[in-house]
Amino acid sequence: MEVYVLILILAVVQSLFGVGLLLFGTPIMLLMGYEYTEALMYLLPASAALSWSQVKDLHKEKLNGGYRKLFFLICLPLLFVGMVAATHLDVKWEIKLFVTIMLVVAFIIRTNSSFRESLQTLMKNHLPIALGAMGLIHGLSNMGGSILTPMVSSLYKDKTKVLAGVSFDYAFMASLQLIVLIFFKGETLEMKYLIGPAISLFIRYSIGKKVFAFTSETNYQRLLDGFILANAVLLGINL
């Protein structure tokens, strides 16, 4: 039951900013004692359903064609490699350490404006490398969202386009991760894993917009920063 409460809460975050279920759900479920693969089986269907709904609603937003081509040619293959490595090797401690590091990186990116701007410029000028790194990081740890938002923000300034780009990437990455788990690792998509998508879609269409209307962006960003740091500290202590 606690997993579904977690999905409910994080679906609000992801419905507003495009990231949340994987970026926060993964370290929290590791703290709760879940195995990495089981955490993925709970979180990926919920994240994929929510992201695909955003892709559908934002389909009129035109994204750079070159970006999409590089995403499919570079990011997804390296995500596959990372997924195979993470799910077939005994690297539970290493995954926890890597997730902790990526949370710290995410906090620095979000709170240090000069560092964020420098990183965004670097990623914009070296987009293939940035996409490759994101794919590998996401495959290994589910934490590609830590660099996804600043990377997409370096390409688009309009918030709607940023959300469209983030949800586009997340939808395909989560779908590929599920394919790897089911067809390459032999995981079964049990009914308990399908409750999450229903929760995330319900939250997005019934609560997400209302929460956004009553919460200023500044205050919410501060809460988000605090949540990232708290997860990094707790997971680091639990290593």
Automatic annotation (TrEMBL):
Annotated localization: Cell membrane; Membrane
SUPFAM superfamilies for the chain: MFS general substrate transporter (SSF103473)
Family stated for the protein in its record: Belongs to the 4-toluene sulfonate uptake permease (TSUP) (TC 2.A.102) family.
One Pfam assignment: TauE
Transmembrane segments: 6-31, 70-89, 95-115, 127-150, 162-184
Keyword Coiled coil applies: no
Gene Ontology CC: plasma membrane
Domain of life (superkingdom): Bacteria
The entry's keywords: Cell membrane, Membrane, Transmembrane, Transmembrane helix
Primary site of residence: membrane
Name this protein carries in UniProt: Probable membrane transporter protein
